[in-house]
Task: structure prediction
Amino acid sequence: ITNPHYIYPGETVYLGPGATPVVIASEEPAEEPTEAPAPGSIGVDDAPKFRTSTRLPSDMLFLRQHGFLDESELREAGRLVASREQKQMLSTLDEAYGQLPERGDPKAVEANGRYAAYRMVREIVHPVTEESMGYLVEVLGTVDVRSIDRNRLAKVVIADSENPMERGTTRIGPLRKRFHQIQPRSNESTVEGTLAGTLRQAELIGTDAIVLVDRGQRHGVRTGNRFHIVESKDGITTDEETNASYPPEDVGEILVLEARRDASVGYVTQLSREGRVGDRV
Result:
């Protein structure tokens, strides 16, 4: 685009042939799977035929405001418990104290490090198994840890705050929220899973949504892979057993922004109908 006056904020820009597609994804290095990928129940020959989308996310600013944590990450987080000044709500340059877990990993939060400050929003529960998938958090800002005493009480200074930080409810700890550009990558295996949650609580899911899929690195998923939302159904029949006998048809695409051990954070790039939590991928 040689003249930016021809485009306006909010418009979608499509890159033609010859352009190098890039996506926003986690800068965390991908880990090797701890076990062999489990084969999906959809055979290679039965996989839905689709045209890969070239529509890629161009603005991931909202990922700086929200994130997903699993149970192990939450256990390592500290909590703001007090401040030097008579304030309940803290903001930039305020000094405070954070209590770290007594039996937590000493390397999870260290002195002279910078960490995220966030609050819990809701728990993500798997729509089928009803097991906890993790927690949705709202990022409030960042804190600098100046020192940690032998009682695991950390002295911190709030480096920046996008929203006020309340004593008692604000957590501090590592949170993957820094991102860089990478190339999409081909899938190495066929994996079947479930669309387990979404960043914004809603009955229906549209394009540009951030979602959680219940398959991760140990299943063979890598950052940059694509999941496809599929359904097997007849347009009239409502009997689930009958509909399950029909071949899977592709109705949408999810680009993996961050592959974790047991789950993946994805970006919905296209849909031919509205998506829902519980959809098959």
Remarks:
- The chain is about 5% helix and 35% strand.
